[in-house]
Description:
Layout: H1 12-30, H2 38-50, H3 55-61, H4 66-78, E1 82-87, E2 90-98, H5 100-121, H6 126-139
Antiparallel strand pairs: 1-2
Helix pairs in contact: 1-5, 2-5, 3-4
Amino acid sequence: MPGRRYVLGDQVGHLLRRAHQRATQIFLEGFEPAALTPTQWAALARLAEEGAASQNHLGRMTAMDPATVQGVIRRLEARGLIDREPDPGDRRRTRLKLSAEGADLVAKHTADGARVSARTLEPLSDAEAATFLELLRKLA
């Protein structure tokens, strides 16, 4: 539209970034006792859902690029939260799985994850939250 002013505060990228910053802050407050980042929690939660996954597959399931997922895995392994096992379908590959300590941590903090989501969506009505999540899925 010719002559229309560009207002940063009205731009989708800016608004998504602000919402992401808010969601990240709420996550960090909710997960402070676990000392986990959002990407670390995503990896642990996905492994809890899947049982085991290759590093590449875990990266795809959590929408992390290879360098990011590699760093996340390295830190989770150093904390003893995930283990590696041979992939029964491909001897050249290993799979990642939760260690006993990692499974305990996920079990202990799953309710925290739900509280973080609820708190993030708190400004919205239930109907608005459902619509918002549906629209985000379309964009993702």
